[in-house]
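Can anyone check this?
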Amino acid sequence: MRWVVAFAAVSLGVLGGPVPASAAPAAPEPLCTMKDSRIGELSGLVSDGSKLYAINDGGSKVQVFVLGRDCKVQKVFTDKTDPFDVEDLARTPDGTLWLSDTGDNKKGRLTVALLEMSPAGKVTVHRLTYPDGQHDTEALIMDKAGTPYLITKDILGEARVYRPSGPLASPGPTNLEKVGTVKISETDTPGGPVGSFGSVLVTGGASSADGSVVALRTYTDAYVYAAPDGDVLAALQRTPTRIPLPGEKQGEAIAFDPDGTLLSGSEGVGEPIRAVRGAAASAPPVSSSSDGKPASSASGGSSDGGGVPILPAAGIAVAVVGLGWFGFSKLRRRRG
């Protein structure tokens, strides 16, 4: 997603309380390298264990690339539907692919959309409206019942969580409702297009095959949450495990293999898909201390320390300049 922003001050929250003991995930290691020039802006990724499904950021038609574990394209599902700004991808157990056409860097869209692609490649458009104005959203998580959750990319470090207020209509629109927020603190993990400020921007989401673990990512880190009952909202209220994903040029894609391995990827031809073994098992176990807090009031120390950090004035200036340059130099045409 491309940013053109100006703001005066940013207050950043933290993700939950102290991390309980849990299995430590391995460091990211390369799985394969994305060499196909048709996938130069990898933004969404899912895995069925033997194949990967990938989408580009934006685009003028629906395209889902089916890849082998070697990152080579085996086939492409296409549809003439012209999206505005596709940002994330999810897959339900029946094989249906869900494309999150929810990018809105200029905050000017009257509706966003979910594009439902059947296993046969047929696309159904479900338009959605926010209850409180426009938002830029790059993360989609589908729960085990097939309910979509949209998590915004918020420059204030507090991502908003939305879900449909009723069954999805086609073409709609269906009203969304805000059901919570997730606060993310700045980290020192290197990578991303906008420096350390990118560590608070949510760029992707994923759910494990059985729905018992969910994850969010920023440009630099992944956060893994336990969802033993498949409740995404309850999971996002809990303390996550943070998994650094250092060195990704513009990390936006994240997915789980069926065995709980976390996959991550970046925009750019020649960038690797990396695997983090044991990621799902690293989610802190659910306990009475990690349950029951409303998402909007999550507070306390993260695995990196407590308190509520404030981005210093110098950091704000750097972020503004960096994001402004990033937006103007990289902004592509978006259709209305």
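Reply from J.R.: I decoded it. Confidence is low (pLDDT under 50) at residues 1-21, 290-336.
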